Amino acid sequence: MPNLASKPVITLSTLAALAMTPVLASCSAAEAQTGERAAPAEEQTRQCFFPRQVNGFRSVEDENGRRVEDRVLIDVGAADTYEFQLMRRCPGLRFARNIALETAGQGRVCTGLDVDLIINDTLGPERCRVVGLRKLPADDPNARAGARD
After folding, report:
1. Angle, alpha carbons 5-111-7 (nearest 5°)
2. Neighbour-count burial of 140, counting CB atoms closer than 10 A to its CB (0-12 exposed, 13-18 middle, 19+ buried)
3. Which of 24, 34, 75, 87 is the residue whose CA sits 20 to 30 A from 145?
4. Residue 20 phi/psi, 5° resolution?
5. Do residues 135 and 141 make contact, with C-beta atoms less than 8 angstroms apart?
6. Residue 45 to residue 42: CA distance in whole angstroms
7. Tens digits of residue pLDDT in 132-147
């Protein structure tokens, strides 16, 4: 069982209280390394957020209406939704009432490789590795009402 006390873990119930004034931050690899602002085209393809901006999560359903165990929708700010692609199935995700995000590096979530999901299960915490994420466009059926591109 991993020792979570030494890692920065933020639960979604805590995040909901912190997400009163959400701002979605755009970031790029160049900005993170050099401090310089990236070109507009690069900003549109890579958008980041801070875990404190997360205010909920939802399951992804397949075409038959069954919950899938290798993807999860994370609600960020007032209207944005990100789809997290997991490395493998995480069975605990189907019935999770809360999850936590564990970030690496500077605390921003940009690529999926900089965050893991932690699900509290009856047998203890289950770590679900994230391998990719994408911000859902406003016309995606899983996007929240009021979403903007």
Report:
1. 5
2. middle
3. 87
4. -70, -35
5. no
6. 5
7. 999 999 999 998 887 7
Helix-then-strand count for the chain, H and E: 3, 7
Of 10-24, 39-53, 62-76, 91-105, the one with minimum mean pLDDT is 10-24
d(CA 75, CA 130): 16
7-35 CB burial, b ≥16 within 10 A, e <16: eebbebeebeeebeebebebbbeebeeee
CA distances from 42 to 23, 29, 31, 45, 124 (A): 19, 9, 11, 5, 40
Angstrom distance (rounded) from CA 109 to CA 149: 18
Indicate whether this model's pTM tops 0.90. no
Residue 51: DSSP 8-state: G
**With bands split at pLDDT 50, 70 and 90, how would you rate the model's confidence at 46?**
low
Give the model confidence (pLDDT) of 91-105 as tens digits: 888 788 888 999 987
Q: How far apart are CA 117 and CA 66, in angstroms?
A: 21
Paired tokens of 27: 């970031």
